[in-house]
Amino acid sequence: MKKLLSMVWVCIMSLTALYANASSIVTGEDGYRLWLKYDPIQNQGILPEYKKWLVNWHVEGNSKTSQIIRDELDYAFNGLLQASNPTVLNSANLVVATAKTASQFLPEVNQQLSQLGDEGYVIRQMRYNNKPVVLVAANTDIGALYGTFALLRLVQTESDLSHINVATAPKTKVRVLNHWDNPDRHVERGFAGESIWDWHKLPDYKYQKYTDYARANASIGINGTVLNNVNADPIMLTPAYLEKVKALADLFRPYGLKVYLSIKFNSPATLGGLKNSDPLNPDVQVWWDKKVAEIYQLIPDFGGFLVKANSEGQPGPGDYGRTHAQGANMLADALKPHGGIVMWRAFVYANEKNEERSKQAYSEFKPLDGKFRENVMVQVKNGPIDFQPREPISPLFGATKQTPMMMEFQITMEYLGFSTHFVYLGPMYEEVLKTDTYAKGKGSTVGKVVAGEVYDYPITGMAGVSNIGSDRNWTGHIILQSNWYVFGRMAWDYNISAEQVAEEWTRMTLSNKPAVVKKVTEMMMLSHEATVNYMTPLGLHHIMGTGHHYGPGPWVDDLGRADWNPVYYHRAAKDGIGFDRSPSGVNAVEQYFSPLKEQLADPKTTPEKYLLWFHHLPWDYKVESSGRTLWNEIVHRYYLGVEQVAQINQSWDSLKGQIDPLQFKQVQMANTIHLKEAIWWRNACVLYFQTFSNQPIPEGLEKPKGTLEAYKAMQFPFAPGQGE
Ligand code: GCV
Predict the structure, then answer these.
(1) Mean pLDDT to the nearest integer, 493-498
(2) Which of 14, 293, 628, 660 could be 28's S-S partner, Cβ–Cβ 3.0 to 4.6 Å?
(3) 312 among known catalytic residues
(4) Same domain? 191 vs 157
(5) What ligand 1 atom has the least distance to the C-alpha of 229?
(6) 215 and 232: one domain?
(7) pLDDT-derived band of residue 22, with 50, 70 and 90 as boundaries?
(8) Which residues, listed in sequence order, are joined to residue 57 by a DSSP beta bridge?
(9) Per-residue model confidence as pLDDT tens digits over 227-253
(10) Which residues 6+ apart lie within 8 Å of 697 measured at CB?
(11) What tens digit of pLDDT does each residue of 131-190 get?
């Protein structure tokens, strides 16, 4: 009996231990590996095929990049195929090579490669010497690296390789991340921990994360990184910091990733002790010439400068009565002999201008067309205001025949729910890139303008304000990794669809199971529209909380400048809501080309998604698509947004057990916050706008909980990512 009791006791104890283990230790995917997971392929239908084509591989070349390709293939195939056999050229079934060797396998590859420049690549399958061969060919080792990652993407997404025939080159030349990272590691508008750059420990201490950052960027074709905030600290140009920048540049070089710096325009005075930083002062030019030479001494392939000037308190050429072109050209002249470029931001607006904010960038830069040096691009945010959940395109796209307009997208989620809202930005980027500017007639889309296909720009580019931080999962939320990913994919090719990218990202990051892929892709494709609905439906904009931009604040009316206040933007009043930017108002529509300008001038032809951006309309205005009154439609959209978030959450919950438990849990926890905050947005906005419409919540919709006073009283002094 005693023995039996002790056996029962042992059983209970071990069960308890087991249970304890199961609940307190969860192993799994913490997100660090991003989309480069390379877990074993489960699909037995395709695995034998891959093994036939890929296991015996050969990479030509002796450069660091060639070695990186070898390391990546070995690591990837050992994971994906559980087998990897580096071998000599003649025994290989996968050959990664530059043009000369590649043409031994396939003579016509030379012809293809001659169209593909320094970064393009070809992936072809064929039979050679009676055996199957996949050829990855490029003109340069960096092209071969991009081709290798593209091949791995095909394998990770379980694509059919038997007829593979890919030939691609990037449509924009400069594809850069912009880090708004400060030297103290605070990231302005960053929601994923602190900056990944540990400036204090550089140049000697180089985290593995730096290398993985370069790998990840190379895998999606990003070829540059601006390391520091556009609200720049001049310390970045001091010798000690340039040594740190050099350490990163050396590490990133074999991945094709150039470094760039944001500069403070008045550095000649503050760092160099000059009397001023006037771009027409010859001493100032000499100072920049010398500083630039010093940088290139350390970093021979340094990319150039990004500049925020005369905007939000930053110094600039305007301080000396000079134009943006004069400021940019001075820097361009210093960089030109070394092959560097200037990315000069168009995000400028000033109170003194007495012009409506959405019009100012165009007014400032359009007259300067033709005045910039050939190595300058003007970097313009996708919309005319500031990274709102949805904006119409900036009228600058297409407006300058000679000055390249470089796209600036925000990847980080400043106005989009920080890092807890499940928002895939692919559909938003696609919407912008596919919008027709009509600059040179129908079909002059923003994508084409940016790629230099409408006007033949000497350089082209796309920038994405990074969402990367020190968080283990890089972006604070697994799903938000997809925004980094889709930015890279669209910067390479503005034609690629958001849906295709969502699907491939899901396959690489979460699962290849068809049901999971379908569900997650659907959630991702719905998520941006959902966010617009519960935050800023029908063209509302800039109604976020003050400073941190966290949560709703449509009531804010007491900030120093009129155009910092939400009330300036929504203009809700007894007679209606919306900003009249039509010819009867501030006439912002005049900055667009015909027929877009006429379309936007009339509420009847303005796409509903931009209705209140361009028009002030009465509460009982009839909304075409639904037949509802404007008030009812606004409320309806706020409610719809919340429903859509609930739907996304439900879909996610249904994936339990089908994807990695850690990934599942991280997203699920964020989803809980997301739903709470979507409801908060809806209730606060509906209650506030109701004070003007004086109309009831439409029948069938529950009354918003809480009081407007309580929503107004909410304070978030420690919300992350704030500016200075
Ligand atoms: C880096 C907005 C943001 C600022 C940002 C600025 C810009 O105003 O709130 O944090 O500053 O845009 O793009 O320069």
Answers:
(1) 98
(2) 660
(3) yes
(4) no
(5) 1
(6) yes
(7) low
(8) 86, 94
(9) 999 999 999 999 999 999 999 999 999
(10) 635, 686, 690, 703, 704
(11) 999 999 999 999 999 999 999 999 999 999 999 999 999 999 999 999 999 999 999 999
Active site residue 660: no
Rounded to two decimals, the pTM is 0.96
- pLDDT surpasses 90 at 389: yes
Q: Are residues 159 and 189 in the same domain?
A: no
b/e map 630-651, b = 16+ CB within 10 Å? bbbbbbbbbbbbbebbbebbee
Residue 625: strand, helix, or coil? coil
Q: How much distance in Å is there from the Cα of 562 to the middle of ligand 1?
A: 17
**Is a pLDDT exceeding 90 seen at residue 538?**
yes
Report d(CA 403, CA 368) in Å as an integer.
8
Is the domain of 352 the same as that of 444? Answer: yes
Protein residue with least CA distance to atom 13, ligand 1? 347
* Local confidence band at 485 (pLDDT 50, 70, 90 cut-offs): very high
Question: What tokens appear for 80 in the block?
Answer: 């994906």
CA of 659 to the centre of ligand 1 (A): 37
In the chain, the number of structural domains is 3
Catalytic option among 71, 243, 301, 312: 312
Residue 306: inside a domain: yes
On average, the pLDDT of the chain sits at 95
* pLDDT tens by residue, 171-184: 999 999 999 999 99
Predicted pLDDT of residue 359: 97
Q: Helix H segments across 336-399? A: 357-365
Q: How far is the CA of 487 from the centre of ligand 1 (A)?
A: 19
Q: What is the pLDDT of residue 140?
A: 97
Over 90: is that where the pLDDT of 349 sits? no
- The single residue of 141, 188, 356, 414 carrying the catalytic annotation is 414
Pocket of ligand 1 (CB under 6 A): 180, 188-189, 230-231, 308, 347, 386, 414, 723
- Which residues are within 8 A (CB) of 354 and not within 5 positions of it... i.e. 6 or more apart? none
549 CA closest ligand 1 atom index = 9
Name the closest-CA residue to atom 7, ligand 1: 347
127, β-bridge pairs:
132
Tens-place pLDDT, residues 446-483: 999 999 999 999 999 999 999 999 999 999 999 999 99
| Distance (Å, whole) CA 199 – CA 411 | 23
DSSP labels, 226-290 = E-S-SS--GGGGSHHHHHHHHHHHHHHGGGT-EEEEEE-TTHHHHTT--S---TT-HHHHHHHHH
| Angstrom distance (rounded) from CA 9 to CA 71 | 52
Same domain for 145 and 210: no
Q: Three-class SS of residue 357? A: helix
Would residue 163 count as lying in a domain?
A: yes
Query: 205 with 354, same domain?
Result: yes
Cα 134 to Cα 146: distance, rounded to the nearest angstrom: 15
Across 522-546, average pLDDT? 98
Strand partners, 123: 136, 166
The DSSP line for 185-217 is S-BTT--SSS-S--TTTTTT---HHHHHHHHHH
* 176 CA from centroid of ligand 1 (Å): 17
Reduced to 3 states (helix: H, G, I; strand: E, B; else coil), residue 572 is coil
Tokens of 510: 């979460």
Spacing of C-alpha 293 from chain mean position: 31
- Domain range holding 562? 533-579+616-713
Taking the mean position of all CA atoms in its chain, how far away is CA 476? 14
Q: Is 222 helix (H, G, I), strand (E, B) or coil?
A: coil
Q: Same domain, yes or no, for 164 and 179?
A: no
